[in-house]
Every structure is written in C-alpha cells, then in structure tokens.
Amino acid sequence: MASGAGSPCGACKFLRRKCLPECVFAPHFGAEEGPVPFAAIHRVFGASNVSKLLRRVSPAERCAAVVAIGYEAQARIRDPVYGCVAHVFALQQEIASLEAQVMQGRAQLGLAMADLRPPENPSRKEASVLPRSCSGEHSASPQSSLDCTHLNDTRDPLFMEEQRPRKRAHHGDDLGELHDLALRMMMD
Known about the structure:
This protein has helices at residues 10-15, 36-44, 47-56, 62-78, 84-116, 122-129, 142-147, 149-152, 157-163, 174-187. By secondary structure, the chain is mainly α.
C-alpha cells in the first residue's frame, strides 16, 4: 500500500479499492485527509480521466496539476456552466477598474504637480496679457484696478493655460493623453 501503515490513500478509500504501491493518487490524497478532497474531483472529472491525465504529466508537475484540477472541480460544482472562468472574469474586471483608478490618480497627480511648478517668467507673461490700464500704469480710478484683478488670479483657466507649458502626449502615453484631456475639460 502506498499510503503506509496499511491504509489506502484518500482516493482509493473513496473508490473503495485496494491502494497499490504505484497508485498515482497516493502522493496527493493522503489517508489522513480522507476521501473528501477527492470526491469533487471524481464527481466532475472521473477518477479514470484524472488518472490518465496525471500519468501524462511529469512527476515534478503532478502536484501543481492536482491543485489545479481540484480548484477547477470545486469551481465547477459551484458554477457548472462557467467553472473558474467566472472567477477569472470577475478578477479581470476588478483589475481593469483598478487600472482606471490608477490612471485617474496619475492624471490628478500630474495636474497637481503642474499647478505647483513656478511660472517661466511671470513678469513678461503678465505684461503681455494685461490690458493697458493694468500693465503697471496707475490709473486714476480705483475701480479700474479692481476690474483687472481677475487677470492676475492664478486660478483663472486662461492665466493657467498661458503659464503652464503644454506637454505633448507621446504615442501610447496614456498619462499624457489624460493630462491633456483634463486640461481641456478645465478650460470649458
């Protein structure tokens, strides 16, 4: 007997047969585990099919094959139509959702970093943007200087667009494309 001490392996115990020394199931379904782990595999695939499969697999890879077969058998019992494919699909959807969140976070981080960069040469930019009454000449009325305060506001999208150098998205650079899209959305 392959399991030692005269007791059959879990698979042979489930099948109610004598466990031979060359039993392909003995290394993977011990007597102490009992027949329960093998029951799902036998129910879904059949002992004969699993035996043939394990004999074709190299001995070094049999343990991984038994784990995969057992996982698939449990998944087939839970979901007879899709098996583990339903779980794989759910994980792929979760990965896609998380990747979208990461890209959105990177785009937001890129915008935040761009807002923290100092302007290239603010005195030259302001002089070219401001109208005559706000370009440093003091006007007589205090109201005219108040009318121009919005032009110096760094949160104004037009002012931000002129100060921030525009990066070109490289082919395949999703972060650059998202950054450009976010800038266009802010301008609207």
